[in-house]
Amino acid sequence: MTLPRRVCYLTGTRADFGLMVSTLHAIRRDPRFSLSLIVTGMHLSDAYGRTVREVEAEGFDIAARVPVDLSDATGAAMARGLGTTLVGAVDALERIKPDVLLLLGDRGEMLAGALAAIHLGVPIAHLHGGERSGTVDEPVRHAISKLAHLHLVATTQSRDRLIRLGEQGAQVHVTGAPGLDGLAALATESRQALCAEDGFDPTRPVALFVYHPVLHEAGSAGLEASLALSAAVAAGCQVLAMMPNADAGSQAVREALMRQQGSGRVVVKTHLPRPRFVSWMAVCDVMMGNSSSGIIEAATFGTPVINIGSRQNLRERNDNVADVVAEPLALQAAIESALRAGRRPCINRYGDGQAAHRIVESLASLERTDGLMAKSNAY
Question: Which phi and psi (to 5°) does residue 114 adopt?
Answer without folding.
Answer: -65, -40
